[in-house]
Amino acid sequence: MNKKPIIFCTGLSRAGKGIFCDIIKEKYAPDSIKLSFAAPLREELKDFVKDKFNIDIYTQDTKLKELIRPLMVSTSHVFRQKTKGMHFINLLEKKMEEIGYQQVITIDDARFSEFGYDEVNFCRSKGYLIHICKYFEKQGFIRKYKVFQSAPNPTEAENDPKMESAAHYKIVWEDFSHLNLTKSQLIEKLYPFCKKVLDKIFNNVG
Predict the structure, then answer these.
(1) Cα-flanking dihedrals φ and ψ of residue 168, to 5°?
(2) Separation of alpha carbons 63 and 40, rounded Å
(3) Cα separation of 65 and 172, whole Å?
(4) Rounded-to-integer distance, Cα 169 and Cα 9, Å
(5) Within its chain, how far is the Cα of 83 from the centroid?
(6) Series of mean pLDDT values for 10-residue runs along the chain (206 residues)
(7) Which residues contact 171 (CB under 8 A, 6 or more apart)?
(8) Which helix (H) or strand (E) segment is 109 a member of?
């Protein structure tokens, strides 16, 4: 049996990396497994965050996620600096090996290109690196024009251009958050933006 594709998603926060993995599961690989570099970090911090702030670290509430983001970023920074970026790479690789490579694996949070060997190198060596960028349309005097999202912090401003440059494929899609769509509706809205790329990836798998 052929090895199934491993697909790493990169892009700025709120670009839609998670929903991209959901599209893969819905349209191409129902048995796909979604992993993340940050999963062990969330497990490390979940009890502390719950005990001290009464916040579920897995919350989907945007405001609460932004409240705890600095804690996650600073903790991640310590682990990364101590291991020159390898701490979360090693944990993710171990998890991937436990699962095996006979199922499609998606990773929704590739972010870093800082050390000599970093997440960007790991992603490219293991599978496909896909950069996702989001825009919204704004009405001008004559016609609509696209406004692309900007980096929310210096770390993303530094790393995202490097990740985009290294990506095998790039997806640019519209921000539909103002429409208050269900997950299924959002998948249908966004699928046309990424169908061509995903067809190429899955058609390469015999």
Answers:
(1) -70, -40
(2) 22
(3) 24
(4) 10
(5) 22
(6) 84 95 97 95 95 93 89 94 97 93 94 97 97 92 90 94 98 94 96 97 76
(7) 20, 130, 131, 132, 133, 193, 194, 197
(8) strand 105-110
